[in-house]
């Protein structure tokens, strides 16, 4: 379709591999290893901060900041998955399971 943007997720895949590889790195030589050493709470805290900063950039309609903060957010989400032993394919499988099911329809089906 003309004008349709295609997304190539290969760079995210490569970044996840790099993040996984940092499990063997020293905390003073790698930011990712530093986060692993700090632990799950610190990683979750960073993820929350980046999510709030992304939301703030969106409210301010600041496009460059939205891009920068979204990159920080995605990066920290990948670190969280790696720390938790999740693989991007786990999340993609869940999204595939939901494909075609409207969020409104899913909500309506929930037991009240
Ligand atoms: N994509 C990123 C990336 N995005 C953001 N960041 C870091 O995430 C941090 C963001 O936190 P803040 O802006 O809140 O900075 P801060 O105030 O220093 O953070 P705190 O002291 O509060 O924890 C900064 O240190 C950024 O440099 C990243 N660090 C690394 N990567 C990628 O991860 C790879 C591995 O990194 P290392 O493990 O450091 O080798 C790199 O080659 C990059 O590809």
UniProtKB/TrEMBL annotation:
Compartments where found: Cytoplasm
GO molecular function, one term: phosphoribosyl-ATP diphosphatase activity
Alphabetical UniProt keywords: Amino-acid biosynthesis, ATP-binding, Cytoplasm, Histidine biosynthesis, Hydrolase, Nucleotide-binding
Major subcellular site: cytoplasm
Pfam families per the UniProt record, alphabetical: PRA-PH
EC numbers, comma separated: 3.6.1.31
Involved pathway(s): Amino-acid biosynthesis; L-histidine biosynthesis; L-histidine from 5-phospho-alpha-D-ribose 1-diphosphate: step 2/9
Gene Ontology CC entries for this record: cytoplasm
CDD domains for this protein: NTP-PPase_HisIE_like (cd11534)
Catalysed transformations (reactions): 1-(5-phospho-beta-D-ribosyl)-ATP + H2O = 1-(5-phospho-beta-D-ribosyl)-5'-AMP + diphosphate + H(+)
Keyword Hydrolase: yes
SUPFAM superfamilies: all-alpha NTP pyrophosphatases
Source species, domain of life: Bacteria
Example GO BP: L-histidine biosynthetic process
Family: Belongs to the PRA-PH family.
Protein name: Phosphoribosyl-ATP pyrophosphatase
Provenance organism: Iodidimonas gelatinilytica
């Amino acid at each position: 379709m003309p004008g349709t943007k295609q997304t190539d997720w290969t760079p995210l895949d490569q970044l996840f591999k790099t993040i996984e590889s940092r499990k063997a790195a020293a905390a003073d030589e790698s930011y990712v290893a530093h986060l692993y050493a700090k632990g799950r709470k610190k990683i979750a805290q960073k993820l929350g901060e980046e999510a709030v900063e992304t939301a703030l950039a969106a409210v301010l309609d600041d496009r460059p900041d939205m891009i920068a903060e979204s990159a920080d957010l995605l990066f920290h989400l990948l670190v969280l998955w790696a720390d938790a032993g999740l693989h991007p394919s786990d999340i993609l499988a869940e999204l595939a399971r939901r494909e075609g099911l409207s969020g409104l329809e899913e909500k309506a089906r929930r037991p009240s």
